[in-house]
Amino acid sequence: MSVSESARTSTAKTYAPKPGAAPLSRMIGAQAALETRMLLRNGEQLLLTVVIPTLLLTLFSTVDIVDTGSGEAVDFLAPGVLALAVMSTAFTGQAIATGFERRYGVLKRLASSPLPRWGLMAAKTLSVLVTEILQVVLLTVIAFALGWSPHGNPLAVLLLLVLGTAAFSGLGLLMAGTLKAEATLAAANLVFLLLLVGGGVIVPLDRFPEAAGTVLGLLPISALSDGLRSVLQHGAGMPWGDLGILGAWAVLGLGAAARFFRWE
Amino acid sequence: MQSEPVVQVRSLVKRYGGKTAVDGLDLVARAGVTAVLGPNGAGKTTTVETCEGYRKPDSGTVHVLGLDPVRQAGDLRPRIGVMLQSGGVYSGARADEMLRHVAKLHAHPLDVDALIERLGLGSCGRTTYRRLSGGQQQRLALAMAVVGRPELVFLDEPTAGLDPQARRATWDLVRDLRADGVSVILTTHYMDEAEQLADDVAIIDAGRVIAQGSPEELCRGGAENTLRFTGRPGLDVGSLLKALPADCTAAELTPGAYRIVGKVDPQLLATVTSWCAQHGVMPEKISVERHTLEDVFLELTGKELRV
């Protein structure tokens, strides 16, 4: 037998095969926890998901830069910034992170682990939801401090946030799974910026020419911010129109992502 | 002793666009360490990645541990360990964090701390993956392949670019895996790696297995060895050849450098020196060379550079 074998201190067979997958719930939980840690550790991601929404909410609520219509500025801004937070995590952040995971072979390596692909996707969704909860808590606390007085049905708000997350996740994963990582990085940031301005987040859509405003109103970010605003600012019932738009984007985005996503 | 094959590939064909990467490849690997050797672009990685379930065969069949790697992926994946040629780790993850994570995906993982210690990954500390050295990244990938206590490990060029110490550490781990009953399929460019580690070597070229056997069997290659000597340029090689046994070849490679290939034994050496004595030639730098795996490899795959 070889030298290294006789030199082993222990006679126990350390590496003797004993294969087996961990229980699914443990795998998905571990994966979601890791993905969330990666996100919270990444400075650029935090800028996008925490710093920018917080700054926008604070700045535009306290300084009168944009005419947000009658009433307290924060009542107009808080729903828009919550929509922005959902977009920053489910779309921009998820697209960039997943794009680089694909580029660096992380998705490929995990594909040969016991974690099934749908389990990986479930973990990603879980990680996005956990991040969004942290964002919503933080932004809500800040908004209350700025004098926010929300109305409406919490269930309608929850439904909007969930459908918005589904719509943005589909689009983000579609981008990450089809474009190069660098292209995803550039495009996801550009889209974030354009939708921040043109999606009714801080600038009311009625400030745009009517035709443009109508088209912009069909974007997922506009539907989400408009829906949240109609409930939280005006106390409206179920915003079926906005939910319909978000639902359509979710079906299109997730369907296209499932169809075109490439793992390497 | 013929154990059940751990990998059985039959008539595998895999094309990318118009290019045929694997062209009717047959390969049987049994328990132990199997090295897959081949020049760049020979189809090594494609073959291994088909076994790992990453690629669907265009035709032919692949069975790993008796399972279809694509259709029975869920059953197979917990039983194999995979080390990719590069990457596979979150750029912001620390080495121990990633290894602990992969361990959590398995039911009975190895002791992570012992594995970290064993592969010298403890020094990585809080450094994230993208800032680790190439050698540390390789060793982490190796650790990730074995931490789930698999039956079969695929290592794609595990020591490419490693320094001698790290290479040695990897070899020692592969030997321990083998001793503990884990089968290993490794692709490599390094002949000495295959000679050192492998029970069985498959040489792949242009998408087919062109030779397979133990390193000894391949090197014996018809028991041919080489005898070289230098002398006066322009010796009568034809006359020398007549003095030699029929199955030998003799040639003047460069002026004054002679090579005889055949069954090199004491008798042959005596024949050559006595022929030299008869012709008043002083053979200098006389040497007998054992056939190495590298010779076999170059003989089989040709010496021209591959793109």
Automatic annotation (TrEMBL), chain A:
Membrane topology classification: Multi-pass membrane protein
Transmembrane annotation, as ranges: 46-66, 78-100, 121-149, 155-176, 183-205, 240-261
Protein name per Swiss-Prot or TrEMBL: Transport permease protein
Cited PANTHER family: NODULATION PROTEIN J (PTHR43229:SF2)
InterPro entries according to UniProt: ABC2_TM (IPR013525), ABC2_TM_bact-type (IPR047817), ABC_2_transport (IPR000412), Nod_factor_ABC_transporter (IPR051784)
GO cellular component, one term: ATP-binding cassette (ABC) transporter complex
Domain ABC transmembrane type-2 per the UniProt entry, residue ranges: 40-264
Key words, A-Z: Antibiotic resistance, Cell membrane, Membrane, Transmembrane, Transmembrane helix, Transport
This protein's record includes keyword S-adenosyl-L-methionine: no
GO biological process, one term: response to antibiotic
Coiled coil: none
One MF annotation (Gene Ontology) recorded for this entry: ABC-type transporter activity
One Pfam assignment: ABC2_membrane
Transport recorded as keyword: yes
Cited PROSITE patterns: ABC_TM2
Family statement: Belongs to the ABC-2 integral membrane protein family.
Subcellular localization: Cell membrane; Membrane
TrEMBL record, chain B:
Enzyme Commission code: 7.6.2.2
SMART domains registered for this protein in UniProt: AAA
Subcellular location(s) of the protein: Cell membrane
Membrane topology (UniProt): Peripheral membrane protein
A GO BP annotation: response to antibiotic
Alphabetized UniProt keyword annotations: Antibiotic resistance, ATP-binding, Cell membrane, Membrane, Nucleotide-binding, Translocase, Transport
PROSITE patterns the UniProt entry points to: ABC_TRANSPORTER_1, ABC_TRANSPORTER_2
Stored Pfam families: ABC_tran
Cellular component terms per the entry's GO annotation: plasma membrane
Superkingdom field: Bacteria
InterPro entries from the UniProt entry: AAA+_ATPase, ABC_transporter-like_ATP-bd, ABC_transporter-like_CS, ABC_transporter_ATP-binding, P-loop_NTPase
Molecular function, one GO term: ABC-type xenobiotic transporter activity
Similarity comment: Belongs to the ABC transporter superfamily. Drug exporter-1 (DrugE1) (TC 3.A.1.105) family.
PANTHER family hit by this protein: ABC TRANSPORTER ATP-BINDING PROTEIN
Protein name: ABC-type xenobiotic transporter
Originating species: Streptomyces acidicola
